[in-house]
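QUALITY CONTROL LOG
STEP: pairwise intake check
CHECKER ROLE: data steward
CRITERIA: each record must contain a sequence immediately followed by its structure tokens, with no blank fields

ENTRY 1 OF 2
RESULT FIELD BELOW
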Amino acid sequence: MTVREAQVSTSSARISGIHARHIGYRPDIDGLRAVAVLSVLFFHAFPTMLRGGFVGVDVFFVISGYLISKVILTTLERETFSLADFYSRRIRRIFPALVLVLGFSLAFGWNTMLADDLAQLGKHVLGGATFVSNFVLWNEAGYFDKASELKPLLHLWSLGIEEQFYVVWPLLLWAAWRLRIPLLPLVVAVGVASFALNVAGVREHATATFYSPLSRGWELVVGALLACFASGARFRLPGALGGGHGASIGRTILSVVGLLLIVYAVFRIRDTLPFPGKWALIPVLGAALIIAAGPGAWVNRVLLGNRLMVSIGLISFPLYLWHWPLLTFARSAFPEGLAWPARLAVLAVSAVLATLTYLYIERPFRSGSGSGARVKVIGLCASMCVAGVLAGVMFKSGGFPSRYPEIIQRATEYDLDGYRASLRNRVCFMDLGQDASQFAPECVDGGDKPLWMLWGDSGAAAVYWGFRELSNRSSAFRLAQFTTSSCPPIVDFEGKNPDCKGNNRRAFEKVRELVPDTVILAGIWESYDKALLPATIRQIKDAGVRRVILLGPAPAWKDTPSRIAFNLWSNDPLHRVPSERLDYAKYGLSEGGQDNQTDAAEQYLRDVAQQTGAVYISVIQKMCNDEGCLMRESASSGDAFYLDIVHLTPRGSDFVVRSIARELGVEER
């Protein structure tokens, strides 16, 4: 080791005192932390550039499993292990930066967020403070769940898994040690069981497998297995890894192969793959090989152990905590999109805040022992409790909508449960993972009135409420609904929903069986390949259906109109209520006037209708004029027309269907 390398190692070891005291400091592991955090940061800021950067979290898991297990095993062998000391050090390591970021998020959200967004933030802060974020996000997952880039604390799911590991793992190892149960077979058995759960569930239960500590724990256990081989007299590294002739070459080969595996994972794995599953083996094995190679291996010594990488690794935890809330808040402030220089600026600000957090928050709390350490632990726990209580109050209050006027409250209301009920979610709207067998009998009205059948995707399900209200008011028809997530009403369409083809076949079988008077085909048309649509319409007509209506797409937005309205109100010095119409050239989904995809879809649907004898009805013409497109009905009305950037609320659906009633041939009472 050179003098310079020794200085870096000595300085870093002094900074990271916990490692120096318990297991001996390894600067290359901080360098590996740098690789992991930079992968995650650039994936979040530039997802199309670094598509697999999210695997940095898996690298973190291996590092955490190794370091924590090595601390536990080393202190067990020295007979100095103490659960109280272990958890005290974990609290002083994790709580300072976490409390700061949670507090910042609450304060920033109070001043900038809609009531529902603030309520959700409160729930996520509470989940972060109690280390159950992964379970909170698991419970929220669904088709109409808010976009991930709008959740400032989404990234805390991984911290939840690590903390759950930290609660269970020391107890398990300590108990096994006391009972003289062989640790290596136990660690292997736990890891194999967790990996088996991961592989078994990654396709059928993707969300659960991603967030569950039972199916992600094997990644930490791989690190723990390395710690078993690296600690004390009970374990020995075999062959070239343990020393002797050829050890240096063997370690270098391991480190190079490990680095190549991580690089491959970062650039080749996609979030469209079933992950973690078997794909997670690549970054996990890569991290394990680098750690196993030891600090003397070439990659570890030269690439990971250099001053820059070690410095980034030292601030990796606060850097991970800061970057995602800052990106999320920036995206909310600029719904038209963040240019790449702005995203780089956010990452730079994150690095500055992380450095300050590390130097002036983390390090002071991590130093010290005895009564001073106990006081710090008590203070940190009290601070975390305060953050949790404040977050709980925000959540229970619904985000304090009283912060702004009633009309803005109504214009920004977000009632997800009511919305799901209005489109008959999981009853006549099949969510992801539901097949045609789950369409309920009540999806077809009884009676002798002419039957109208609504067929399509979530956009079609969103207008169901308007047709239901029209049916109730006019008594002119009864209604059937067959709608499926991400599934346009096109026979033999194959998309990202694997149940789409079967569900559409079921819907078409119902057309043949029921022979409705009218079939309404609706959807978010601009999102799909519509090449098979003309053939579908002809098959419907051949089945004896009198009329086929193609309902055009609703205007789509860069950000939820309610959030745009809130920002307009809050940024206006006079706090004037914004117009009921938004400038579509400015806020529409694509730049340069009306959304080109929507415009192209409109023209295509008109042409198809003319070719096939269907009736085309434009929604955009009812909602838009030269002044812009409606986000609510009038200047005095506060009821929002949109749940998100494209799905109509029941109020929006009712407005649209009332507007087209005459074109539908219905005279309302």
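ENTRY 2 OF 2
RESULT FIELD BELOW
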Amino acid sequence: MTIRVAMAQLDMLVGDIKNNTESVIEQSVIAKDTHQADVIVFPELTLTGYPPEDLLLRPSLSTRIESALREILARVHDIYVVVGYPRVIDGELFNCAGVIYQGALIGEYAKQKLPNFQVFDDKRYFSEGREACVVDIKGAKVGLSICEDVWHPEPIAQAKAAGAELILNLNASPFHIEKMGVREKLLHMRATENAVSIVYVNYMGAQDELVYEGGSFVVDSKGVKVRQAPWFESGLYTVDFTIAEDRDCRVAPMPGDIAPSLDVEASVYQAMVRGLRDYIEKNRFKGIVLGLSGGIDSALSLAVAVDAIGADRVQAVMMPYSYTSSMSIEDAEEEAKLLGVEYSVLPIEPMVTAFMETLAPEFKGYGRDTTEENLQARTRGVTLMALSNKKGYMVLTTGNKSEMAVGYATLYGDMVGGYSVLKDVFKTLVFRLSWYRNTLGYVIPERVITRPPSAELAPDQVDEDSLPSYEVLDQILQMYIEQDLSAEAILATERFDRDTVYRILRLVDVNEYKRRQAPTGVRITARGFGRDRRYPMTNGWHIGE
């Protein structure tokens, strides 16, 4: 016998249960009529979108889900629909996968392993499932599992013991660098442990800081990847299983069935584009406005903005002051022309002067310090927000992870904005991504990438006046933020001097209050600033061991 499975790698809007349900119905009909699929498998919590967070606590959730299931039961026939949703059963809320066929719910599985780390809060909302679910589909015994279940040996082994010959795994697994390879190794392990083929269907799209890159795939009972859907593309992707006499579900490899892999720069860049695009479109912003300084961060952010929503919906604004170099002005103009965006030059000197004159009596007796530098940044922030209010454009902030980590940014100044594509991108990766973007088409002048970075808030200022080189800084930050290594553990690597390590870690700790007020942004590492990392702003922890 042969079973054709359609992997529905789709983007849903969180909370929009009605339209998400319509998408399930529409795609099920397409899978049946156009692709001749026997089964269609949707991702985890498809009906609510993912992650629904505290929408799961709304009193009307149960009513809306039951109504959605009735719609699917009534309107989809002649194809098995495997779909994810939250459901209240005997007074408890479960993360479920249901199998619908010919107007009946013929099987329902509750997720057993509930992740409660990094960006996941499943235990806040759901009760743990306890039993396997194996259903008969065209004579094959098909087991269900949901996302985290496959990261543990027990649920798949339990399904296998219940007779499963094929596992359908519904996922909402967010992107981070190199996670693609981790998933493959994981499924290889589960498949070979249980001698069972596994279909891994992943969510597609972005929700606030999280990006889901799709990449749904299939491994056979020997753990060999035999199908790979494209990355960062919505669609239905089919795979045919033949049940042999030995009850092994087999898939014959065919040319073109393995989508090409992506390197780090390509995958991160696509995640940034997808994250920004979905945030703009799902929140119905008319467009994007950003400050274009002539530096590398704003140049890369502008390129991502154009790739996300098109040049006709992006405005770049150069806001020069007396410390702004002619090189920066020239490069900003060239970037805007290369990308074809609306470009404005709004000098801020008259506004800064007005601030300074007004504040002069209060500043009397105090020497010049970073206050005057911050006034420049805050004047730019006010200007951008005025344009945002007037035009309905969202301000795209341009700070990178290295800056956000050590507080090298101005509250209510260059931190002003609704979203950031560089929030989780270290400066050294910003350089790599800029070179990468130019391989797709030259849009960032080379000297923007090669010149020493500078905020240009003081004469002849460069970032390394205040910070170590970004090569050194990013290594320390990666060990402290993403690996949680202590100062002494970092020093044990014998790569950095003591004063530098302690100074950088101190800067990270004391600037937590700034990061709490920063806009959300694309998460591309295993531990970004946001849902991943939750440290108290006020604390007496001593840096060291």
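INTAKE CHECK: passed for both entries
DESCRIPTIVE NOTE, ENTRY 2: The mean pLDDT is 93.
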